[in-house]
Design goal:
The chain is an alpha+beta fold. It has four helices and seven strands, in the order βαααβαβββββ.
Length: about 130
Amino acid sequence: MKKYYIFSINRDFYEVYKKNTDVLYKTLLNLYNLDINEAHFGISVFNQLCNPINKEIVKSHFHTKEAAFKIDFNSFLKINPSCMILDAENDIPSDFLNLNYYEAPLFMIDFKNQNYFWLTVDKMVKV
């Protein structure tokens, strides 16, 4: 099972990182692994870099009223205010790729496998 964290990136930062995904990944990885004693710093950086997830848009896309639900046989999505978490058996469900109409650029990370890419751009750019 792969676990993807999906972040809504601030448009100003998207312009900076759209072709420099390695730096964005490392920044989010550092925040992901941040010591609890540094949480105040991490929250500040995260709030500048990322937008809250608009649950209503995502739920509307998937025609659900729930914040956690199955997408298909092997995929489960949980919508949090800070990010979405997609647990997928194999690849990303094709229905999920339609979120390119979301209001802000979405950056997907599988921290365990060090896989990351933009989901929401004019065309999907995979690293």
